[in-house]
Design brief:
This protein is α+β, with helices and mostly antiparallel strands and about 260 residues long. The protein has two domains: about 5-195, Aminohydrolase, N-terminal nucleophile (Ntn) domain (Glutamine Phosphoribosylpyrophosphate, subunit 1, domain 1); about 200-260, no CATH class. The chain has four helices and 13 strands. It has helices spanning about 15-25, 50-55, 110-120, 130-140; strands spanning about 5, 30-35, 40-45, 60-65, 80-85, 95, 100-105, 155-160, 165-170, 175, 180, 205, 230-235. Helix 3 packs parallel to helix 4 (about 130-140). The longest helix has 12 residues, at about 110-120. The protein is globular. The protein starts with a strand and ends in a 27-residue tail after the last strand.
Length: about 260
């Protein structure tokens, strides 16, 4: 489904939130920021550490996209954003006047793309396609307002025009300094309320010790049913391990879990 976090005021997104978003949407990230009347981008960031490193130098109004591939396969070339141009080029970094990010699935994209190419008289751009790249081409030919007719997805257009720097299409969720593409997710606190959780804190089960016998009475540690209680504690430790391609890996070594004290 992907997720977009936009910062129209240029406030930096906390690293922990970026990690959570990348963990749940693990098919690559892209960053776009507005500076000097242009929108600059870097994408194809397939590892979380690479994304965080690239993000450190970003200043000013910006947005970050985390992809969960649905069309076109898992390739850095199809990470977002896409320049809204006739070529809809697949460069992993660059700058332009208008860029598109997308959260959702647009099922009719290939038919609409073919119709748009044929009606425009423009040559079909080379390279792999996804629904979002196709939509970016259609927007170039028919204008921004066409996004209102392209399903229930969430689209973000970033422009070098200060008056239209951020254009949001669809239902978005604004919280404090950020705008999130998943309106009903409460995605920021925490992100896992909408997406499948990347990490579940380990639990430690502690059985109550056998009760000593005192005379003819046997005192017990009681739970709700009056029997020996079993106490479950949740560790507050946060464990994350990522493979070389940026995917989350649940630790399978029991020694990696910090005992609850």
């Amino acid at each position: 489904m992907c997720v977009i976090i936009a910062s129209p005021k240029g406030v930096k997104i906390p690293d922990e939130l970026l990690r959570e978003a990348a963990c749940s949407n693990r098919d690559g990230a892209g960053i776009a920021w507005i500076k000097d009347g242009k929108v600059h981008w870097v994408k194809g960031l397939m590892k979380i550490d690479d994304m965080l490193k690239a993000y450190q130098s970003v200043t000013g109004p910006h947005a970050v996209h985390f992809r969960l591939a649905t069309h076109g396969g898992n390739t850095p070339l199809l990470t977002h954003p896409f320049p809204v141009t006739d070529q809809v080029r697949l460069d992993l970094k660059g700058s332009g006047f208008k860029l598109l990010m997308h959260n959702g699935v647009y099922t009719d994209w290939s038919e609409d793309l073919k119709a748009s190419i044929l009606s425009s008289g423009k040559p079909c751009p080379d390279g792999p396609w996804s629904d979002t790249r196709g939509v970016a081409f259609v927007v170039k030919q028919h204008g921004d307002a066409i996004l209102n007719l392209m399903g229930s997805s969430r689209y973000l257009l970033l422009s070098g025009d200060k008056a239209h720097a951020f254009s949001f299409f669809g239902d978005w969720h604004e919280y404090k300094d950020f705008v999130f593409s998943n309106k009903n997710s409460n995605i920021a606190f925490p992100i896992a309320t909408y997406h499948q959780s990347c990490y579940t804190p380990p639990t430690t089960t502690v059985s109550a010790p056998a009760a000593p016998t005192v005379g003819s009475r046997t005192p017990t540690t009681t739970g709700q049913n009056g029997t020996n209680a079993t106490v479950t504690k949740s560790s507050s430790a946060v464990w994350r391990h990522f493979t070389d391609d940026g995917r989350f890996k649940q630790p399978d070594d029991s020694t990696a879990i910090v005992p609850v004290t």
